[in-house]
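One example given next:
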Amino acid sequence: MKNHQNNPLDSKNEGNTCFRSFGLTSYRRLKMSISIPEEKLEDFFKRFGNDNEDRRLSKQELKDAFDSLGSRFPAWRAKRALQHADANGNGYISDQELDSLVKYAAKHGYD
């Protein structure tokens, strides 16, 4: 039997990975089933805030980020992320609040 340890979806290393066995019906669902390490998530979110001078993430930028991660409801996910990570309540995620955003996304997923 071949070693399939490099396939993150084949948890039993049997080489039988298929979409149906994981309840996945599309590539979008497949992307969401693979977890991204927190340091990669941080870099990912930073890219969405780097296009403006203040380097903060707005609700729209969060929505775009969650959409890129494959979220089915990116606007809802962005709203929840702001509620969770926006400590000062100004409607933006700053560099100081980015860690809370990353922890939220890692814990609750992007879906």
